[in-house]
Amino acid sequence: xxxxxxxxxxxxxxxxxxxxxxxxxxxxxxxxxxxxxxxxxxxxxxxxxxxxxxxxxxxxxxxxxxxxxxxxxxxxxxxxxxxxxxxxxxxxxxxxxxxxxxxxxxxxxxxxxxxxxxxxxxxxxxxxxxxxxxxxxxxxxxxxxxxxxxxxxxxxxxxxxxxxxxxxxxxxxxxxxxxxxxxxxxxxxxxxxxxxxxxxxxxxxxxxxxxxxxxxxxxxxxxxxxxxxxxxxxxxxxxxxxxxxxxxxxxxxxxxxxxxxxxxxxxxxxxxxxxxxxxxxxxxxxxxxxxxxxxxxxxxxxxxxxxxxxxxxxxxxxxxxxxxxxxxxxxxxxxxxxxxxxxxxxxxxxxxxxxxxxxxxxxxxxxxxxxxxxxxxxxxxxxxxxxxxxxxxxxxxxxxxxxxxxx
Length: 407
What we know:
alpha+beta
């Protein structure tokens, strides 16, 4: 059983939704955010990446950045660009990309249930990133970006999510970044709200798909309010969008490496772990297949059967690569901090990997078979942790469509 609740959303005026909504703060840098927000006073980047409105910054984490975010949030509300609903509701948020649809329920979820392990994680977090979001939440006194959660679908929830859009007009419908269509419906009928709450009592657990840092930050702010005896019902929850795992697509998270290699010696070492085939390019088609791009040639690496594991985390291809290649052959132990490795989302395709390796900055690339949702759920259920950068979800949930006030 998990607790999922409706909330009084702060959201854009209907006619401004497309201008307000932006990509998540953590998939763009300050320069990109500033360019996106250029000549657009409604852009949510003025709140989520408020450093774009300040000059002479030494760091995007200065205290005045968070103060500016709070000022801009107040300005958006004062101007009526954002408004808070008078009563609590759920929302359906549908994203359509290349003909594939995924529909999630926008709601609040329980801080205590995260602490109790009913909301499960599969990644570690970095303290400096947590501090950034905690400062942002404190200044705005609101969850300004939703957490991307998943769950195993139930028939009652499936029925509601299918039938409601067929009989109700969406609040928003627009096409934005990368030709993704975004649609939002409000569920404000008291009987349907009760049905959704009851349906989630049959869901044993929720899973963080994306947003581990935001989750940790929201939870720590809630605990901070408890310690300061400032806890409120609002502060005991955090903003989430919950998608059934059957509708989600994980793309591969590819690796590029800048370590000088001698090809013959490298392949002698790789042959201890993989069957190696020189191929004309073909995408990895199943677990255990990894592509290597080196010196303008693609090679297929197939993990040897005797090295395969049944452990949920150790059996991931990114884990094999880390254990048998990145650490022992290249000396890359912490992929989160080592500057000799970087990551490329699979949606950008093999041509991006070829382009990177053809530049002076990178020597070789590994193209992965994507982690599956069954892998993610299995790792989380086992209480284990995936290697960093194991998953890349598309399409991205936009920020600015829903804000959850902690006041």
